[in-house]
Q: What sequence folds into this?
DNA sequence: AAAATAAAATACTAAGTAGTATGTTTTTGT
DNA sequence: ACAAAAACATACTACTTAGTATTTTATTTT
């Protein structure tokens, strides 16, 4: 069983270095050579574990990126407490928590979406899965809020969920253009204004 | 003066084909060779008119992409009429007007932002210029609305402008993941809900 | 019409690309 | 301890990349 563990460890190493490099330099412009140089292994090791760069890309999406979005934006939505407050703290808190590096490089998922989603259906599907889970969590929370009378019953949970996600992903891109947090502060203000109107 | 015209025409041809290819396949993965094959000219012609691919990229941003955003999203904001209605028709109308191709490939500006804005300051500056103009137009319209009592004086024009832009750019990316317009319809609903709250 | 200049073509370089073929080393089951 | 298999290394292929050097063709200026 030691060999299997070692194999898993190597795959994880490749996955980690890939994610870092894809995030920093983009998927298409990060070569397999560069990745393997980062792992201090060789190309032979790579093609022993992965059949292609595409397969690696899909695995980075379905593990690393998925986990990042889950931990940061989805799991928190299933906490207890006032629905509206939960939305505010999750979105606002998350964006405030980003490091400078993360602000400068945007959202890893959004980068993937905009770089390669229109090129291969497989990427599209893998990324859509994450968005759908995020959307479902938001809808679930909004519906709970409606039941508990903390959210206006007349609004469309679907529409609000999509609008929240869009604005969040959008600002992660826009922020790349600036050298300060003004746009993020504006976003946070815009968000809280938006959420206020969801009150009953 | 005929030579100068011919030169201009060639540059425009290169610019047009570049824009199309960058939009379809991304900036970094579109080679100069591919572009010149599309123009039916040769590499010699390219490097006679542009000193590098980077220079071309910057010119595509400051001409083609800028014009696209101006025509579609900025100029319409300076029309007469109720400010809130103008916002609704501009945003909602624009997104409804996109061809299937444009929906599948997202926003050319947003693609550039997410693909290369964090790599070169020059790209950052060129793209930021467009966003700033867009933001200024929105703020101007919102302030006019406040004066004319069609928009709530208590809201921050800055924050609303950024939130509108973020959500719009965000949805252009998200739409790439889907094969139908459901998310766009949700976005439009979310937008109109958002705009409603701007009323005095 | 000749000289000068601009536009474009041809042929190249040096470096990078994904992926393969064939080794060697390490681990595992017997 | 030994054969089999898994993990990894080395060396390669065929192709693409941005950019350059040099030449040919078209246009303008004198």
A:
């Amino acid at each position: 069983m030691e060999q299997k563990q070692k194999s898993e460890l190597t795959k994880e190493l490749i996955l980690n270095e890939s994610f870092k490099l894809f995030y920093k330099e983009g998927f298409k412009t990060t070569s397999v050579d560069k990745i393997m140089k980062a792992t201090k292994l060789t190309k032979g090791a790579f093609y022993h574990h992965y059949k292609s760069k595409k397969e690696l890309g899909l695995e980075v999406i379905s593990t690393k990126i998925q986990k990042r979005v889950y931990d940061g934006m989805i799991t928190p939505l299933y906490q207890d407490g006032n629905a509206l407050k939960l939305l505010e703290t999750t979105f606002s808190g998350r964006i405030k928590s980003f490091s400078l590096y993360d602000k400068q490089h945007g959202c890893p998922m959004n980068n993937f979406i905009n770089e390669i989603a229109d090129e291969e259906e497989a990427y599209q599907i893998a990324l859509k899965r994450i968005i759908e889970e995020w959307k479902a969590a938001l809808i679930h929370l909004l519906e709970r809020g409606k039941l508990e009378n903390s959210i206006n019953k007349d609004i469309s949970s679907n529409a609000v969920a999509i609008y929240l996600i869009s604005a969040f992903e959008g600002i992660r891109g826009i922020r790349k253009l600036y050298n300060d947090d003004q746009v993020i502060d504006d976003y946070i203000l815009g968000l809280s204004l938006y959420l206020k109107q969801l009150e009953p």
Remarks:
- Residues 152 and 200 of chain B are 4 Å apart (CA to CA).
